[in-house]
Specification:
Order of helices and strands: HEEEEEEEHHHH
Radius of gyration: 19 Å
CATH class of one domain: Mainly Beta
Oligomer: single chain
Number of helices: 5
Shape: elongated
Number of strands: 7
Length: 167
């Protein structure tokens, strides 16, 4: 199953994420689910090891949607940022603000899930540059009009005009 590289980011979550992003580096963490430890921050990078759910690790740095981590046995590599639950900061006492921070930083709590902008600092956002090669890759996933029409016809769907929402 191929997952879309796009996520909808709520503005409020983005602001909180930017404020908390600096706290995410060199922090103890735990894997939320079993993951491959990869040689680089790419889905098709070489797998260095298979890590079990609940594996303890240290987050060393972030790169987009990826975290560079060190395992308890000293292996270093990359895992998806959303698969890592960061430890609560020392002295946080597990208050409501900490819970909100954990939602933003790990994408989950024990009872609810959300998605946010993770691993992005103000500096990284300011230095962001377009990447035409990645856009070209995404264009390859675009559905062709004939595919769209065949899909719609097979499900007896029809086109209809929807008015724009007011400003």
């Amino acid at each position: 199953m191929t997952r879309s590289p796009f996520r909808i980011i709520h503005q409020g979550t983005l602001v909180v994420a930017l404020l908390l992003a600096g706290n995410a580096l060199a922090t103890p963490g735990t894997l939320i689910r079993a993951s491959d430890l990869l040689a680089d921050a790419y889905t098709d990078a070489k797998s260095l090891a298979s890590l079990p759910a609940e594996a303890k690790l240290t987050v060393l740095e972030g790169k987009g949607g990826w975290s560079k981590v060190r395992t308890e046995d000293g292996k270093t590599g990359w895992v998806r940022l959303l698969n890592v639950r960061m430890a609560a900061p020392a002295g946080s006492g597990g208050n409501a603000l900490t819970a909100i921070g954990n939602v933003v930083r790990t994408g989950t709590t024990k009872s609810a899930a959300t998605t946010g902008a993770k691993g992005l600092s103000r500096e990284k956002l300011a230095q962001a540059q377009p990447n035409p090669r990645e856009v070209a890759k995404l264009d390859a996933f675009r559905a062709k009009p004939t595919e769209i029409n065949r899909f719609a016809a097979a499900r007896k769907l029809s086109a209809r005009d929807i008015p724009e929402l007011p400003n």
